[in-house]
Every structure is written in structure tokens, then in C-alpha cells.
Amino acid sequence: MCKKGFNIVKTPIVSMCLLYCALVGLSTFQALNVQESVYETCKYVMLFWFLFVCCTVPEKDNLIKLMAVIGLMFGVIGAVQQIDFLMDGFGRKNTVHGLLYNKNLWSSAQLLTLPFCIYILRFSKKWKTIGIIAATGLLVSIFISMTRSVMVGLFAMTFIVSLFNKKIRKWSIVLAICCVVAVFIFGYKRFFDTQTLTYRFEVWSQTLNMIKDYPMGVGAGNWQIELANYSDGITTPDAFKRVFFAQPHNDFLWSFAETGIAGGLVFLSIFGLGLYYAFKTRNILVMCGVIGFVCNAFFSSPSDRSFHNMILMVYLSLVVPVVGKWKSKPIAIVCMLLCTTVMYLRHVDTVLLSKAHNWQLSVKEFSKISWFTTIDQQTTPVAYWKAVEYHKQKKYDKALDNFRIAHKQNHNHVHNLNFIGVYALQSRQLETAKWYFERALKICPGFELAQENLLKINDVYAGSK
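^ thats the sequence. predicted structure below, dont judge the formating
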């Protein structure tokens, strides 16, 4: 450990985190949707601030115990829900998601807390009891959920433990056998189902094409907008019409695509440094945690979730050689307050927008949404929802103005492209209308509304001859 007062910023892991945060911020200049990049920058500023806080905790065991208690809560809730799920005869498939949005996120969060629960077995009798209960509940829930990326992460953790700790190697082998047995009992078909893998490979392939076309990145938060430019290689039914892509299910490709090659390499280096110091200090806890996160990040998007990121920061802080307090400067405090405000506004906006898909928001309510929120979680522009409401009210001028604003927020949204084309067609701007319909069909060839509207233009041309 270093002496008290050691500068946190000078440690390699923290330096790379700050550099990545700076590159995310700089990617704003590459972005077509600036607000999304601003939000992503604020998210990473707050995340790395949390890393600073964790680094300055003098008693790291307290952090570990806290995460183990969270693991206990996750384990008990997960096990109870899964048992209820089994008793129901799998009648509510994929509905077990605990405290998070879906099964994959819930299972990956459980995986990340598992190493803490096992680590505290070395503490007092009370903590051993907590660890046993928590680990048992977590493993039961993970096995029944049968999330592939989580199972791969669990296999990897087991392998690491067996390499570096001979005393519990036999238990690692038992756990590995349990993993294999669980695959065949609870999810053989799901585990080896290739449909979702095919979808991922398609999206990954097009993301690689995006990286080739934009080596400097498309801007943080803009992958979800730009992917539609590469729709030719995506065969998912109703892609970009009813099925939208918020992330590529691979955090590493995501980072390269949005922040460029430089940003992607720095992002990789954060995990590389974490593993390097974990191996150097033979810190099995951190090895398991980082490897579990990496395995999950290769097939999913844990870095898009605050809770998963915070657990990763706790793991990294355990190998940052710092003791003592870090004195923040006034400018850093002001920056954090601004970022906190942005994050709060985004949260409020997200809750409000969740009603939009059920057409429960009025124009007045849409006006409450802040400048920092331009698209919802399905990449639909906020202005699009507002424009549709104006269209229903037959306020066509205001509707068209908002459809145009929506086009700036997401220029690849096929429904918005179709609406603008319809307004151009009604104004007899045939070439303009044709461009918008053809653009929508290029992104989504099976888009029936755009096909019908394009036929109307052809009929007009035919009638004028």
C-alpha cells in the first residue's frame, strides 16, 4: 500500500478512467445528437467519482461486507422468486427479474455480487453464515435463470479460483459440475438456442463496419441512431420498425464504435489494468469480479447499467493502492452537481416517457421533458411523440415543425421519415416526399406504409404524363 496522501489521479487505473471520461466527452464533437453524448459524459463523470470515493475508504473489508449484504438480499429474493417460478411449472417464462428490468440484468447483477459473498467466508462466524446463505441463494437463482453470459462468467470465475487457491479447488470442481448439470436440467434448449446468437453476430458485424467507417467514433450515445445506416446486414424481423436496438450487446464493440479506436483501447485498458494488479497481488476476489464483468460485457451491456458499473468500481478500488482522503477541488464539486442535475432530469424524463408508448401523454406533458432528453429507450425521438399528438389535434403546422425537430434528434427513425414524406406529398413536393419514403424503405424494406405512399407518388407521376 502507498503512503497516506498518495495522489489517486496518478494511479494507472484511475488515470485510464479519467482519460476515458475525457474521450467520451470529446466524442460529443463527432455526435449528431449532442444531448445523448452529454448524458453519457455525465454518467461516466459520476461513475468515476464513485471510484474515487471507494478508493478513499481506508477499511476495504467494509466495502466487501456491504456488497455481501447486497448479495444476501439478491440471493434471498432471487431464490424465493425462482422457487415460486418452478412451482408454477415454468408458466411465466422469463418473468423472473427480481429488482431489475429483465432476467439478464438481474442474473448478471447476482453474478457480480457472488464473489463478495464467498470471500466473507473467511471472516467471523456471523459473516460466514451470511455468506453461505447469500451464495446458496445466488447460485440457485443463477442456475434456474440460465443466462448464457452469466453461466460463462461463472465458469470463468470457477476456473480462476481453481488455479490460484488449491484449498478450495475441489469445491470449484463441484461448482463447475453443478453448472453443467444445471444447464441440462433448467435450460438445455435455451442455452444452446442459436437465434439470439445469430442476432448478436449480425449486430456485431454491422458495428464493426461502423467502426471502419468512423475510426474517430460516432459520438457517445449515438450508436443506437447510426446503426440504421447498416440495416442491410440485419435480418431481425421488423428491425427498425417495431424492433429497435439500444445497444449492441457487446460493451467493447460499443465503446470502439462511439468513442473511436482510441477510446475503445482505453476502455479495454481499464479492465486490463484491473486484472494485471489483481494477478500481481493475487487478489482472487478482484480477478473473479472483473472476469465476471468482462464475460457478461462480451454478450450483453452491463456498462449501460448504473448498478453493474458501481460494482465494477468497487472491484477496481480494491486494487488501487491508496490510503487516506482525497481532497476535491471546488471545480470538481461544481462539475458533480451539474452532472447530478443532468442525471436526475434524465431519470424524471425516462419515467415520463414510459407513458408515451401507451399514448398517455399530452402535448403539455411532453413540454416538461428537459433539453437533455431527445430520444426514448427505443430510440424514438421525443419530438416525434409530440408531433403525433399535434397531428391528432389537426394542428398540422405544429406537427410538421416537431417532425422536423424529431428528424434532427434521430434522422433514421422510419416512422418519422414516413410522416415527413406524407406532409411533403400533401404539399405536392413530390421529389422531397419520394426521398423520405425511399430513405425509410432503405432502412426497413418491409415498411408497408412507406411502400404504399411511394406508390401514390408513382401514380401521381403516371397521371401527369
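The domain at 348-464 is CATH 1.25.40.10 (Serine Threonine Protein Phosphatase 5, Tetratricopeptide repeat).
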